[in-house]
Design a protein that fits this description.
heterodimer; A: 191 residues; alpha+beta; 2 domains; 6 helices; 56% helix; B: 592 residues; alpha/beta; Beta-Lactamase; Alpha-Beta Plaits; TIM Barrel; 8-stranded mixed barrel; 7-stranded antiparallel sheet; 20 helices; 23 strands
Chain lengths: 191, 592
């Protein structure tokens, strides 16, 4: 993955428990440097190792780490100068997720070694949206939960994210976005 | 609807969301239609006069007119929307009769952000690279930031490295160069000047530094070292290198110092060092012994230091505060000393070569042998008898003196054990070097006494006066006294003779040094000193032994003064054990 993903994880850990914890994490997984280049493509193993060691450090499950990272990613990329792209992609949750593939396609021109995920949005009735997420990277479903939650927060919309599990074709994960009142959002940890 | 079935207008609208269709049929260009994106972006375009809304700004500035638009067909043009000053970039095509079509995109630069232009990605056709330009510009900024971060990181790394190098090459106490830096400096000079060039090296050792530590504490010792280091730094040129080898040992590597000027420079440094040092505990007087060596850069630095150290050592033997230039003869002496050290260690390991000789201690009045002082003798397998003043110094230098003392004591006690059957109450005096005394000494003496079956009260341990200077050692002496052996102050009068020593330490007697005793027959001053010493000792209930009695006149004087015990060539030279045994029980002892 490109280094900006790992820097996003670093940013999360620095916010949660400080530089010393981050340095310890890097040392334990054998990283020679404690920072990353945004524009360098790193082995996926680095990212998975980081998630595992952050889990140990924070005492969270790896799934919780990924959820937290997904939510943090929205904040991080916005702060790191990619906020403009968010605004270009859409003005609301639906158009944004629908436009993610187009956004990724254009970003890929600048990051040719990236392997972008794909999102498809469809109506499931009663304002409910189905989101099909496809990626050749396994195990990142929880991150999408956090990402969708973070986006809802970004667009100041009320959605409850439900993770329905693997897609029938086995190529990704199935999520459902439920329009939710504010109290539900609070319960879901989105507000 | 499949693309192949789309109307041309629909196809155009999908492929070029920013198209403008101009109707030129009535002479005044009118916007007949516009793409969804441009219509939303610029608002209110359709059915408006193009002349009112747009100007052509490139390639040639002109107002929009039918003629101008026709003249632009086939060219890349920039259209500026007059109300908003937003620009479009594209080309103008003919479209049927009396119509022209502009197809293009918003004009954006790498500095623009689409969101500032109030555009979305969905406003652009998939093939339109305009949005890509903005994203690529964003990515380029990301890469620039990466480079800046790397530069910062490299700069930090270089700074850290420099700090680490500084720490690794600096003595933390004095901030002078440490061994590592000295060795590196030597190698560097050798590389630049060649191995045949010579270098002058000054070795500096602070005299009596241990005493400073002992008397004032190590923190004051550290203060002194820091001040001296600063003085050394001030005493040399910037290009010279001053380093601390450890403890109170320093070296100066002079860069291109003429040999004939070296002594002058060294003397100047010595003058700086010997100025009183003001510490937080008061003023401390300092002297330093120095050795100078002119060495070839082809030599290893440790050899060069060894030469200068040898010169310093030789000078110090003559007295403190000396400056001595290394001479190759000294090197030979050093090798000699090294060989002796080797042999001495081997002799101690094998238990052969070292034996006690015995110097009688007699009753001054009767000349009867009352005891013996055991003195170490070394019979070297090839050199023969080695003088004690040579091998004791070697043993002390090599840290072997405690083993030497132990070996002699053990053998002497064995003799004492046998002799006591012949002459009960005979006293054995054994010398222990101050350097070998420690907390382990008392248990080791007790074990030797047990092994030999000698009563502690028949043994006297002699310790030189100079060792008594340290009040901290009273515990060690008390432990020895607690065994029951006697303690006697040797060479009294030559060291720091002090009533405090006699009072503070658990001693039973003293030996008046020969330098005072030998003159008492014809030197009034010596006689007065010895008489006063005997009188003082008597009042303190201390035994007194007079050393160096060589004439009858001296013996008679001592007897007249009331000195009970004496030792000297008048009675006997030190003799081997079998000859000593023959002296037992004899009275009126005199040398043959």
């Amino acid at each position: 993955m490109y280094g900006m993903v790992n820097r996003g994880i670093r940013d999360l850990v620095l916010a949660e428990c400080g530089a010393e914890a981050w340095d310890g994490i890097c040392e334990r997984i054998g990283l020679s440097s404690t920072d990353f280049n945004d524009s360098t493509n790193y082995d996926d193993a680095v990212t998975y190792d980081l998630v595992g060691e952050v889990s140990n450090e924070l005492g969270w499950t790896p799934e919780d780490v990924l959820i937290a990272f997904g939510r943090h990613w929205v904040l991080f990329t916005g702060r790191e100068g990619w906020g403009g792209l968010f605004d270009m992609a859409g003005d609301d949750m639906r158009t944004f997720v629908e436009g993610l593939d187009a956004l990724h396609a254009r970003v890929q021109a600048s990051m040719p070694r990236s392997r972008m995920p794909s999102f498809a949005v469809s109506d499931a009735g009663d304002g409910v949206l189905d989101v099909e997420y496809r990626s050749d990277r396994p195990g990142l479903g929880p991150m999408v939960v956090g990402l969708l939650g973070g986006l809802a927060e970004h667009f100041e919309e009320s959605w409850t994210v439900e993770h329905l599990g693997r897609l029938d074709d086995g190529q990704g994960e199935h999520f459902r976005l439920h329009p939710s009142p504010v109290q539900d959002r609070v319960d879901a940890g989105i507000a | 609807m499949p693309a192949s079935l789309e109307s041309p207008e629909a196809l155009i609208a999908r492929l070029f969301p920013f198209f403008l269709l101009f109707d030129l049929s009535d002479g005044d260009p009118r916007i007949e239609n516009a793409g969804d994106s441009v219509n939303e972006w610029l608002a209110g375009l359709v059915d408006r006069s193009a002349v009112d809304l747009f100007a052509i700004v490139r390639p040639h500035k002109r107002i929009v007119s039918t003629e101008a638009l026709y003249a632009s067909v086939g060219e890349v043009v920039f259209l500026e929307h007059i109300p908003t000053r937003r620009r479009l970039r594209g080309g103008i095509l003919t479209w049927g009769t009396d119509r022209l079509m502009f197809v293009g995109s918003p004009l954006v630069t790498a500095e623009d952000k689409l969101e500032n232009l109030e555009l979305r990605l969905s406003d652009f056709a998939p093939h339109d690279a305009t949005a890509d330009i903005v994203i690529m510009a964003q990515f380029a900024k990301l890469q620039v930031r990466d480079i800046e971060r790397q530069q910062l990181s490299i700069a930090q790394l270089a700074e850290d490295r420099a700090e680490l190098d500084q720490t690794a090459s600096t003595d933390p106490l004095t901030l002078l160069a440490n061994r590592r830096a000295l060795w590196a400096g030597w190698a560097s000079v050798r590389r630049s000047r060649g191995e045949d060039a010579t270098q002058t090296l000054l070795y500096i050792d602070v005299d009596g530094f241990k005493q400073i530590n002992d008397e004032h504490g190590h923190h004051i010792g550290d203060e002194v070292l820091k001040i001296l280091a600063e003085r050394m730094r001030l005493g040399v040129k910037d290009r010279d290198m001053v380093g601390r080898l450890g403890g109170d040992e320093f070296v100066v590597l002079f860069d291109r110092l003429r040999p004939d000027r070296a002594a002058e420079v060294a003397n100047r440094i010595q003058a700086l060092l010997t100025a009183p040092v003001e510490t937080s505990a008061g003023v401390v007087e300092i002297s330093a012994s120095m050795g100078l060596a002119h060495v070839q850069l082809g030599q290893e630095l440790d050899e060069a230091i060894r030469d200068a150290d040898t010169a310093m050592y030789r000078g110090r033997q003559r007295g403190r505060g000396s400056l001595t230039v290394f001479d190759p003869v000294m090197g030979k002496e050093r090798e000699e000393r090294r060989a002796l050290t080797h042999d001495l260690r081997a002799a101690l390991d094998s238990g052969e070569g070292f034996v006690p000789w015995f110097h009688p201690i007699v009753d001054v009045g009767t000349g009867t042998v009352m005891g013996f002082e055991a003195l170490a003798r070394w019979f070297h397998p090839t050199r023969g008898l080695v003088r004690p003043d040579i091998f004791i110094g070697v043993a002390e230098g090599a840290g072997l003196v405690d083993r030497l003392d132990g070996t002699i004591l053990k053998q002497a006690l064995a003799c004492q054990s046998r002799w006591q059957e012949i002459q009960p109450g005979l006293t054995l005096h054994a010398n222990l070097s101050g350097r070998s005394l420690s907390r382990a000494t008392a248990p080791s003496i007790a074990a030797a006494l047990d092994a030999a079956g000698v009563n502690a009260r028949d043994v006297v341990i002699e310790v030189t006066e100079s060792w008594f200077i340290d009040q901290h050692r009273v515990e060690i002496l008390q432990a020895i006294a607690d065994i029951g052996v006697g303690l006697q102050l040797d060479d009294f009068g030559t060291g720091y003779s002090s009533m405090t020593h006699l009072q503070a330490f658990p001693i039973d007697g003293l030996k008046i040094d020969r330098s005072f005793v030998s003159g008492i027959a014809d030197n009034e001053r010596d006689r007065s000193l010895v008489e006063a010493t005997i009188s003082m000792a008597r009042s303190l209930h201390l035994d007194v032994v007079a050393e160096g009695v060589e004439t009858e006149a001296v013996a008679e004087s001592l007897n007249a003064m009331g000195c009970q015990w004496a030792q000297g060539y008048l009675y006997s030279r030190p003799v081997p054990a079998d000859e000593a045994a023959a002296l037992l029980g004899r009275s009126g002892l005199r040398s043959d």
